[in-house]
Amino acid sequence: MADFSRSVRAVVASIPQGRVASYGGVAALAGSPGAARAVGSVLSALDAHTDLPWWRVVGSGGRITTRKSNRTHRLQRALLESEGVVVEPGGRISWQRYGWEGDGEDGSNASRAIRVE
DNA sequence: GCCATGACGTTCC
DNA sequence: GGGAACGCCATGG
Question: CA A15 – C1' B2 distance (Å)?
């Protein structure tokens, strides 16, 4: 396993509940900006044993691109909604409200307070 | 070490 | 607005 995958896992694990991060963002935080595709490869290798909140990782602009299978896509949406993330029809998510760029980046936490059910 | 694949991202048509 | 093509990086065979 490369350090990259390890970094990716660490970043994903750092995503707060009720927030979502983009593949590109995770790749950047992992130390390889632009390696969004690589992030997808890493996440695709995850199993049911993983504790990583992979469902908090979405495409650009909060768009779900989980093309692995319709089943996974459905599960992700359910999990996100379960955490308080509003998934709009079409698998779209308000990046402005739930987008996460990294720890400490949420300076405007006041306007996007995380409220868990 | 090289070729093929992929849960991405952006741009062009 | 939707679809297709190219470019990106990392992993697996």
Answer: 37
**Amino acid A37 CA to nucleotide B12 C1' distance, rounded Å:** 21
Report how far residue A5's alpha carbon sits from residue A72's, in angstroms, rounded to the nearest whole number.
Answer: 21
Are β-strands A21-22 and A57-58 bridged in parallel, bridged antiparallel, or unpaired? parallel
Nucleotide with minimal C1' distance from the CA of A59 is: B8
Question: Rounded to two decimals, what is the model's pTM?
Answer: 0.87
Q: How does pLDDT run along chain A (117 residues), one tens digit per residue?
A: 678 999 999 999 999 999 999 999 999 999 999 999 999 999 988 866 788 999 999 999 999 888 777 888 888 999 999 998 999 887 889 998 899 987 765 545 544 444 444
